[in-house]
Amino acid sequence: MPTQADLDAANVYTSIMEEAKFRALSINTLTNSGYALPVPLQREYCFLQLRMLCELIALGCLVAHGDIEETKSSSLQKAYRAGEIVKRLEKLHPNFYPSPRKLVFNPGHVHLGDYDREFLTKSDLITLYGKCGDALHKGNLRQLLDPKNQAPADFRDIQEWGQKILNLLSVHLISRREGRFHLLVVLEASQTGGNVLVSVVESLVQASASVE
Fold first, then answer.
1. What 8-state DSSP symbol labels residue 94?
2. pTM score, two decimals?
3. What are the backbone dihedrals phi and psi of residue 206, each rounded to the nearest 5 degrees, phi first?
4. Per-residue pLDDT of the chain (212 residues; tens, 9 = 90+)
5. Strands across the sheet with 181-186, in order?
6. Which of 52, 54, 145, 177 is least enclosed by beta carbons within 10 angstroms?
7. What angle is formed at CA 30 by the lines to CA 138 and CA 143, rounded to 5 degrees?
8. 3-state DSSP call for residue 212?
9. Residues with Cβ < 8 Å from 151, sequence gap 6 or more?
10. Exposure string over 147-161, b if 16+ CB within 10 A, otherwise e
């Protein structure tokens, strides 16, 4: 049976995912709204949300793996840079990262199928986090005046990143290090009126896919 600590982690993870969903959907709202804001300002807002999403995913992983004693260290508890958290968690538990799944409904049970679309991988998250940092700073004068550094006049790159994040989070599994208990997460569950649903599930065999 899951412990109270498992259930507490699931509750905190639920609130993190609710915030992540709100931020991801706000990108779609802005980029499809036709607001009379200059495109560069809209892109800055979107990159801020993407950066926050990277941090929420990383912090969510830290919460989900609170059963690993090393995650309680002062340095990890104070860490906020998504790339740093991801790299340190990988050393503690190589399969710590969310694994996207496809819900397949069969008579009497639900099967977690393999996901077959693009999603935000661990390496993608680190890359995106760096891009967000670049996008949210003007840089030096040489960079400012270089035509090659001019931002695109549309949102295609942002929408692609946002979709990868939603593909990762819509239905995903996070497996504890020992492989027995997992967090099964549905971002918009009918059972909760469209809110996030996080369940602590138990498996008889270790089942966690590595995501590179």
1. T
2. 0.88
3. -70, 125
4. 778 888 899 999 999 999 999 999 999 888 887 777 888 899 999 999 999 999 999 999 999 999 899 999 999 999 989 999 999 999 999 999 999 999 887 766 777 888 989 999 999 999 999 999 988 876 666 766 677 767 777 899 999 999 999 999 999 999 988 878 899 999 999 888 999 999 998 875 444 444 44
5. 109-114, 99-106, 171-175, 181-186, 197-202
6. 145
7. 15
8. coil
9. 39, 40, 43, 135
10. eeeeeeeebeebeeb
Rounded (10°) CA dihedral 56, 58, 62, 64: 70
For residue 120, what are its two tokens?
């935000």
Q: And the tokens for 101?
A: 């799944």
Q: What are phi and psi of 34, to 5 degrees?
A: 75, 25
Where would I find the H helices in the chain?
4-31, 39-64, 74-78, 82-92, 122-135, 141-145, 156-169
The answer to whether 60 touches 13, Cβ cutoff 8 Å, is yes
Tokens of 200: 């602590």
